[in-house]
Amino acid sequence: MNPIDLAIFIFYLIAMLGVGFYFMRKNKNVDDYYVGGRGMNSLHIGLSVVATDVGGGFSIGLGGLGFAIGLAGSWMLFTGLVGAWLSAVLLIPRVFKLLAKHKLFTFPEIFLHLFNKKVALIAGIISAIGYIGFTSAQILAGAKLATATFPTLDLQQAILIMGITAVVYTVFGGLKAVIYTDTVQWLLLMGGLVFIGIPLGYQAVGGWEGITSTLDPSFLDIWNIEWQQLLNWAVTIIPIWFIGMTLYQRIYASKNEKTAKKAWFIAGLFEWPIMAFMGVLLGLFARVAVQQGLFETIGYSEVADMDSEMGLPVMLRTVLPVGLMGLMMSAYFSAIMSTADSCLMAASGNVVTDILSNILKIPEQKLLKYSQVATFAIGAFALLLATLMTNVLELMLLSYSFMVSGLFIPLIAGLFFRKKSPLAAIWAMISGGTVTLLLEILKKEELVAIPFDVDPNIFGISVSLLIYLIVSNRK
């Protein structure tokens, strides 16, 4: 990488650390640290929501989908739009009714008021496990991008650099640092894609003529997708808008219900079509570049030689000129950071507020210090986990599935069912998450064939619902 590009990138990392230290001095209590003082506006919240939900992991993952299947990969984020708008209409009003009565910091605290303390504790454990995995996925996404950008850097070194930077500024800055940096980072990514990445990538592969003469027509067919894949994305992604801890923190940080709902509508539009097509287009350009032989000099002569998620960063490294390369890499790293920091904050909130505070009696004046220590410890563990995984999208969707299968049905039951049974909620959480994880493992080891190749999450949610109904109706 040219020294100018490297200098731009290093400046970006230092700036992010500076934001963390700045807000460290602003945070007076745990209210500031976890929910940003509860007075933020819809634009900051909306951009932070989409930055967190799409972020770098889905950006790299979308590039991988564009590389693998073309424009049809954009449907993955259509489910994000549906989830955002459904939760704005159905969930946010009910959450604010609870906020009018209780001072909430985390998502599992919802279960405390809908069911009881034990249900909230189990929900906190499930949410923490899921978000630790999701944080690891973001660190891995950044590391993959770094290794494609800096050929002399191996994956393990890149994981350390990305992980340490994200952990340090999150530990010190809390949610305000996360939301304000998310706004800047997301605008940086959008600007980089619109004005740099897509135009130069399009030009490099020879424009429309180069694309159509190189690719199989199926890659340009937006409907070239099987119903099972659409169903799998819908069942995995839509429910996360109802049980995502990072999203609840932003609901709590909003000035009022109207602000939160407006932020969610903004986030949905940014997800699809804007970010969805930008991500898959760049991945598609990367596939064209490989088939045209543009990457032969760096060891990728055929599509089979390349990890689909590496196509996008390799293409950017190849086609971008000095200066713009540093800006574009900073844009992608910023997107990754914006999700990693939010997920780390979510896991920390779960551990401190939902788990430790239920086991230990932590003095209120020491909560902020406990929160920072917990954030650091969880970040270190997530970093270690990232060294053991290879596929970003696989790790993200597995983390999503575990949380969705365990938490979605109990939440819906608590908010909308007439009969609320704590025992049924506990068994639904345990059975749903366990079924999904077992099926995921058995499927990966090719020990079981799942009918119609649908996502194990469908069976986990179904079992969770069945168990809830059976237990809650027992006399």
Give an account of the 3D structure.
There is one protein chain. The protein is mostly helical and 475 residues long. It has a single domain, classed as Sodium/glucose cotransporter, CATH 1.20.1730.10. Helices cover 77% and strands 0% of the residues. The chain contains 20 helices and no strands. The N and C termini lie far apart (68 Å). The model has no long low-confidence stretch (mean pLDDT 84).
For the structure shown, list the relevant keywords.
475 residues; mainly alpha; Sodium/glucose cotransporter; globular
Share of residues in helices: over 70%
| Order of H and E elements | HHHHHHHHHHHHHHHHHHHH
Query: What is the CATH domain class?
Result: Mainly Alpha
Secondary structure tally: strands = 0
Distance between the termini: 68 Å
Largest sheet: none
Domain count: 1
CATH names the topology as: Sodium/glucose cotransporter
Number of helices: 20
Summarize the structure.
It is built from 20 helices and no strands.
Topology, element by element:
Layout: H1 3-26, H2 30-35, H3 42-53, H4 55-69, H5 75-90, H6 92-99, H7 108-114, H8 117-149, H9 155-204, H10 207-214, H11 227-237, H12 240-243, H13 245-253, H14 257-291, H15 311-319, H16 324-359, H17 367-386, H18 392-416, H19 422-444, H20 456-472
Helix pairs in contact: 1-9, 1-16, 3-9, 3-13, 3-14, 3-16, 4-8, 4-14, 4-16, 5-11, 5-14, 7-8, 8-9, 8-15, 8-16, 8-17, 8-18, 8-19, 9-14, 9-16, 9-17, 14-15, 16-17, 18-19, 18-20, 19-20
